[in-house]
Amino acid sequence: MTTRAAIFSGAAMLATVVLCGAQTSSAQRQPASKWVELQRHDLADIGREGVEMLIEIPPGVTTQRHSHAGDDFGYVIQGTIVLMIDGKPPQTVKAGQTFFTERGHIHNARNIGKITAKAVDTYIIDKGTPVVIPQ
To answer: Cα 54 to chain center, whole Å?
Structure first.
């Protein structure tokens, strides 16, 4: 390999590494939804547990499709989301409104507003199961 070819080859590899690094860095900066557990209590009389969570969804972000091993009672505190439950029409939910997702139904939500959407969800789930089951 000539010196000139080696320089071009090295420059091409360096450009590829820089470009891939920039794409990875850009992807890492994408906002994501945030789930914070507020409280959890054993509901011994029904063999389940109640879990309350704060969910924050930045503008334009869609949460991962998921389900729950129990029922989900939600209240939007701030912003506007579209709740998409498989087999049902999309439901727009604004601050001050509630929503309900039945046990095992696959769903996700998208923030269609310009501010971070915040919701408090209360789950009545089977003991020992994860709150969120990714799909």
So the answer is: 12
DSSP one-letter string for 19-78? HHHHHHHHHHTS---EEEEEEEEEETTTTEEEEEEEEEE-TT-BPPPEE-SEEEEEEEEE
H-helix or E-strand spanning residue 9? helix 3-28
Q: Which of 73, 21, 81 is nearest to 56 (CA)?
A: 81
pLDDT by position in tens, the chain (length 135): 554 444 434 333 333 333 334 444 445 566 899 999 999 999 999 999 999 999 999 999 999 999 999 999 999 999 999 999 999 999 999 999 999 999 999 999 999 999 999 999 999 999 999 999 999
Q: Are 79 and 118 in contact (CB under 8 A)?
A: yes
Cα torsion at 79, 57, 63, 105 (round to 10°)?
A: -50
